[in-house]
TrEMBL record:
It catalyses: (3S)-3-hydroxy-3-methylglutaryl-CoA = acetoacetate + acetyl-CoA. Pathway: Metabolic intermediate metabolism; (S)-3-hydroxy-3-methylglutaryl-CoA degradation; acetoacetate from (S)-3-hydroxy-3-methylglutaryl-CoA: step 1/1. GO terms for molecular function: hydroxymethylglutaryl-CoA lyase activity; metal ion binding. NCBIfam families: PRK05692.1. The keyword Isomerase does not apply. This is hydroxymethylglutaryl-CoA lyase. InterPro entries: Aldolase_TIM, AMP-bd_C, AMP-bd_C_sf, AMP-binding_CS, AMP-dep_synth/lig_dom, ANL_N_sf, ClpP/crotonase-like_dom_sf, Enoyl-CoA_hydra/iso. Pfam families: AMP-binding (PF00501), AMP-binding_C (PF13193), ECH_1 (PF00378), HMGL-like (PF00682). GO terms for biological process: ketone body biosynthetic process; L-leucine catabolic process. It is an enzyme of class 4 (lyase).
Amino acid sequence: MVSPPGGANLSLVQGPSDPPLWTKTLSEVIAEQAKQHGDKEALVVPWQSTRLTYRQLAERSKLVAKALLDTGLRHGQCVGIIAGNCYQYIEVFLGGARIGCPVVVLNTTYSPEEFRAAVTRSSCKVIFIASTIGSRKLDAHIETLATIPELNRIVSLADSDAHVKNLVKGKVETQSYSTFVSSAHSVFLNDSFFRRAEKAVKPEDVLNLQFTSGSTGLPKAAMLTHINLINDGRFVGQAMRLTPADVIICPPPLFHCFGLVMGFLASFTHGSTIVFPSDHFNATQTLDAVVQEKGTALLGVPTMFLAELEVMDTNPGKYVINTLRTGLAAGSPVPAPLMHQLREKMNVRGMLIAYGMTETSPVTFITSLDDTLEKMTTTLGRVLPHTGAKIIDKQGNIVPRGQRGEICTSGFALQKGYWKDEERTREAMRRDENGTLWMHTGDEGYIDEEGYGHITGRIKDLIIRGGENIPPTEIEERLLAHPAIGEACVVGLENERYGEVVGCFLRMASNNNNNASQKKRLSDDEVRAWVTQTLGKIKAPQQLKKNSSTSAVYISTPYGRTTSAVNVHFRKSLGPQPVLRVRRARGSPDRTAFRKLPLPRLGFGLRSAIWLMATECVLSILPGTTSAWRALIKPVLACHLRHSSTTSMSVRIVEVGPRDGLQNIRNNVPTPVKLELINRLEQTGLRIIELTSVVSPKAIPQLADCQTVLSSTPVQKLLTEKTHLRLPVLIPNTKGLDIALKYGVKEAAVFISATEGFSKANINCTVQQGIDRARAVATKARSAGVVVRGYVSCIFADPYDGPTPPSAVYRCVKELLDMGCYEVSLGDTLGVGTPYQVRALIEYLVRNGVPLNQLAGHFHDTYGQALANAWEAYNCGIRTFDSSVAGLGGCPFAPGAKGNVASEDLVYMFQNAGIDTGVDLLKLVETGHWISQQLGKANDSRAGTALATKHCRPSRGNSESAKPPKLEWTLERETENLLIYRSGVNLKMVLNRPKNGNALTMPMISQLIEAFKTASADPSISRIAITANGKFFCTGMDLAKNSTSVGQGGSSSSAMFERLTTLLELIDNSPKVTIAAISGPTFGGGIGLAFACDIRISVKTAAFTLSEVKLGLCPATISKYVAREWGTAFTREAMLSARPVGANELKALGAIAEVADNVDGLLSQLDGLLTRLRSSSPAGSRMAKELVRLSWAHAGGETQARGIQALFEEMMRPGSEGAYGVQQFQQRRPVDWDAYIRETQKAKL
């Protein structure tokens, strides 16, 4: 990112200048892509059973262009199309582009009147129209075309034009699409006319007209050029890291820039394949396309993703998605819970978020695949290459970083202007003092110190009261600070005297009915007084609506405001009432991305994130809005609701694993393991982590190292640098507090028991004495500036005294709050509570004046009720929950039973209910898996165990202990060509002819054959790795002049072929797990050597080149392994082009498992991989390899069936590794298979 001149810290950013812009026409790009990618599929449309290659698209678009010329169409005259996503759409778009005829893409949700107005305004000479889109007929739209005198021809996309001809009654010439295209074969036979027309097109010419939503009246039409759209699509594809191997599933419509530019052109400019699953969005067909076409990228808006996830939930097991690697979301901010679900259920690791507007082609900001989840869900990303952005105040001055103002953008993506509307072009596009042209977006936002954009609302959303600008969000924030208000939406209300005054919708907090102190309904005057107290009288709402709306609501839609059918229905239904212009709540900006999608009129067309109450009102009024659509719309809008702390769509997780989870572990846990656990937990996104307890070593030996933990460099760094973290420490007395203060602890936790028996047994004092101790700690802590959290134990029962009366719990809660605890956690120490008891206790506490927002839940799972209790507490209004990773911390009164609720289970439950936790679930699962292994105990998290099995993600951490262990290797044998090392059950072969690139000679091949035969027959070896010394991994067959085998033909070449084939088959059929650690560039036979192995890891600089075709040869020997692992289409292209294929390309295909920065990192990865494989049985691994081999070699045949049956019988045989593994599982013991093999071999000896 380039800083502003002079180093000023201003909100002015400029994208990189690399790569250079393409100054080409789309016609030139079509020709280049057809030449480069030829018979590779460019477009797949399953619902039309159509598959078109790059060459076919080039040929068919040329036919369309010639046929358009035959109608009399000339450069600059417009072609219109209204249709769903279909192959004809792309052919028309490309065909118009080739002869300089702008293609007008028409919104399929237009009413007939809007459609006619758009066609007339753009002066279309030819219209391509579908008869139906989904179940919706376009008869009325077709009929309106008969009234447009400028229109020359209507081309029906149906099989016949008879229906269209009948509707327009002969007033306009009609043709079917097939007839239209075939007519091109007979016109301009010498192509000279077409070539002249194509050559006349310039990169600066208008390629596309996109209608945008205007604030009043008819929409504007943005003129977008070849340079605009080609480069914008290209840079979006670059951000997604698209390659020819990618398959993009694109359900967004082509009549928007999302589908056309971010979808099709992004794919087309990168040689990828794009798939249109259906003509209009259909979740089931989209998922079918992902699975059947092996999609690697998925585009959509949050509404679409939610619908797809719902289909997956209602069809468990039907959609196993493991090919998606990335995606692109736009249309609305993507809530973190939805991002988590996409990662977990669809395995989408990198979902990009884009921002822009139609007038900027459309993207100007986009996130990166390297960004954190937080940045992906809370920022717009950074600007594209060759793009500028600035934030200005009302006077046009650039504001400092972090300050709000209007977002303006500049650069290649700016539209040419509005079609035939110079006045509005000048209003939106203005030059600064340096002559730079800027698009004034009308969006309010800011740019942070790292150059990331943020959006906060619309400039036009300001309420202007008598000349005073009033931001609605400021008033909403004040309203939501009142404990009785749950949701708020502030609006501008027309007023004759002031122009506008403040009005608001309110929904009262859900706990209001249960709170005795809030029984009286909050009056309008009380609301006004609450706002006036801090914001002043002019910002107090003059009109309020609580719980329901009785006034007409004026809804913004993408189709303009004055003609909205929504408004008509509101006014007809509610009569002549004052008009409220509903504005969005914060977090739903007007142009966060591209909202006009083919949903019902009130589906995704809503520009305002109307809170749920108003949404329900609208949905009940609009005709034809089904319950299915309501179910689809409401969850998305619910994510935008602005809630108070007691009704928010998010919860806080307090991770207690490092203290409460570990304190009852019998075996000593080393301090480095505890520190690594804290480090890993912080990386998951958890923001509250209980570090330890400053207690006597005699009382809790496991926490004897508490001072070592607190004084350690990692914890001190967290305490001093990570200001967003809360790191409480449990403090039993003032002596412990003094120690904690010495180490800079900023939050203390105190605890008391609600029952006498447990208090005496646990801390050797009465309840009152416990309260006094806690008060002493809290008082001293607060005076030192340390905040205090409280715990109450045994809220439902005591192992000594029996059931706990609610009054005893209330006493403790009140005492803790009175001594200054900001929050009290209710602990079901024995895990005996039920949801009924949870609700009864919470309601009892609330009735007695305990604020809900100062309560938290701490549930144990002794009787399997923890999640149910947490969910009930959430429904009662609790928003903070304690939990422990991997369910660490058993119940001391029920040995062997589960203790703390597992953090993974809690996060999984909430995230799948659409409730944000801020936690990366898969990282949390990794952490639970890791700590369970470190402790040598079973993982008590159900969700964690299931997800760890499903995703198999390797654990990562930043500290030294997180690095893969370094294995000790011993050189066992050295030959002229090979070094053979041993480490336990692992064997490593190193190619050792670096001076000739480790080229394969007859002696080397023979030595490799011998080594593999010996290792494969050795029962003490489980895994075989192969790597190389020197710059190259293996350059293939030795083609040097003094080579005696290759290139001579006859018996020499045959012998070489046979020996290499023998070697590769030995590797491929080895009963051991084989791993290739590829240390550098690889050619020909070396590629076969690597991809005959089971697993490949590589340095990122490695390139794989199949260059045989350049020598008049073909990679015959290795083709079987390469095509199988790379895929046939990719292999064919790589063989024919003889280009170097990058390691990351193959990683994206799944052909390479891991990529390292350098050789040292590669060898470290190899050691780590071999260590992880210790948990895999040798016999199980061999059988798994055989299952995979049967599936591709004999799929569906008798050989496969017999093979599976034989493997099943083998693994069930008494005395097998399977029998041993099951026995260990039943005894809850993890299996170290390396140790098992060693012991087995000893027993045999």
